[in-house]
Amino acid sequence: MRRLARHVGQLAAWTLFLVVIAAFAMGPAFSPVPEGYGELKISMAHLAERVEPCRPLTEEEQTDLPPTRRVTEVCPRGRVPTLVRVRLDGELIIDRRVKAAGWQEDGRAYLLEFEPLPAGHYELELALRDSPREEGYDMQRQFKLALEPGHSALLEIGDGDVALRLPQ
Amino acid sequence: MTTPQAHALPGSARRLLARLEMPLSRAFDGVHNPMHHLGALTIFFFYVALVTGIYLFIFYRTSLEGAWESVEYLTHEQWYAGGILRSLHRYASDAAVITLGLHIVREMIRSRHKGPRWFSWLTGVPLIWIVLWFGISGYWMVWDELAQYVAVGSARLMDWLPIFTDPMSRNFISNEAVSSRLFTLIAFIHLVGLPIIAVLAIWFHLLRVRRPRINPTRKLMLGSLVALLVLSVLVPVYSHPPADLDRVPLSLDIDWFYLAIFPLMSLTSEGFVWLVAGGGTLVLAALPWLPPAKKPPVAEVHLPDCTGCGFCAEDCPYGAIDMVERSDERNFKLEAKVNPDLCVSCGICTGSCPSSSPFRQRRPLTTGIEMPHFTMEDFRLQIDVAADKARGAVLVFGCDHGPRVERVAGPKTHTVSLPCVGMIPPAGIDYAMRSTGYSGVAIAGCEGCDCHHRLGDDFTRQRIERERQPGLRKRVPRERLLTVWMKTGDETRLDQKLTEFGKHLADLSGEEEQTDPQESGRREEVQ
Question: Model's pTM, two decimal places?
Fold first, then answer.
């Protein structure tokens, strides 16, 4: 009788163990975005203008350089931060000034944002300033975004081009 | 009486834990209680995941198109082998998280992370991260919608740290951005890199533990393996639809054991997840010193009594004793030397010292190695103090971490609680029966495989059985010796055992001469 009770106890223990595993190994389900939502990804890898333009070297300056490093112009490494503004149906959803990558801030400016959005039709406006200017924009684009539930649209900002990719 | 270590008696949390574990001890016969083997079970589940993982990798294709398809093939086409092993791989990994979590909580409640044991605790903390990386990298490999969610989530977490110039997440902005080489990399990390790191981390974790129990009992290995196989057959694991970065998964059946951080990130932010993970890790790592505790007294060597036999060094569960070249004039080669940083103050060394004999006439009584807060003189005094009532009474030796023997003290029982029953020198049992006149001796220690100081129960048993030096002398009547192994809080059952033992001793009166001590069978209860 005692032996049977032990076996029943062991069976109960293992069953509880399995129930806990089964309960959390594949669920409860989780929805990364609310029902009826899609997602807009905004990805930027953009090379902005230099902080200071390249400058031709004078003959005297060239002569001072070692023969193997004699160049005709010098370019300061730093790049200006890229100002990115994204509006969705007129509402500003991204307003970021993105520094160029690298210790010398001489690389591309990278940005990646994930925006969950209710499915629907949107007017998407992108404005970008990547030069030392203080006012205005160097690039502006407008797109029509038709987002379906579960779809992930991609606004990709490259060095010279911008594209809105919608799922096929 | 109790030793000056009585402050180490279980607190309410420890008593509650013991009470919760009691039904398991009843069912699994104490020694096989899974709660006593949590660390070893975690390693066993790691082995299961490793072996099943090797089989799965044989069929796994490390390419963008092939990853999901090959896993689907294993799951459906080869369900009888690959499918079951895939499920077993998953469930063993999940089981490891459960046992690991319980192991951490249990060791903390029992204060086995403090003092000299800080090293094992601290080196165990990275293992939590390694186990999580194992799980997360494994989910990448399936390349289904869940893998997509996990991959993007992992990349976003990494991007939050100021490490990468080009965000790692940009590798997952579109299907075209994902390279097949990613799967070669992840497979390498999951199958080669992490296992090597895990084995090294486990080695570090056990570095200061002598005779570590790496494997659970066979019964537990078999039981857990069968249980996981049953689950694998009844609830087979499946994949989500293949990953498509043009879509965002709407509903995912998450493995909450490994992936809970990703929903947390979805609901909060990457920074919050790092705060929880980093802060939690720091708090866990600092726990051995929170709050700072007074260092317990460490074992002391008395050279005039030390013959350099090395038994104490052999028995110390934490390797705190080294045998070094003799520093006095006595004609022995070696002497014991205690490393105070490793000594947990268990007193097992005193029990192993052949000089620990209350029969010796020296006053005060000293021995080769002993605890300053409970010397051999104290030990003998505790036995002698009740000598006037010893005849017909039972001397009960207890452990500060096992059943509380002082609760069963009565007119016919005298109790002595020690830091560990492994501290009892076999000569002390002999002395109690022969010189003091107790009719019987009971030893009530921690339950099998659950000794607070790790090996005290084993060594005590082996010394009584004369399987370990110093052994209990043959002349000691085994039928007058009771060993009981149980948890703290089980004093009612201890009281019952002692009552039965008292009756048994009464029955023995007058029969002693006819009883062969070796054949009569020592009464032993392992609960």
Answer: 0.90
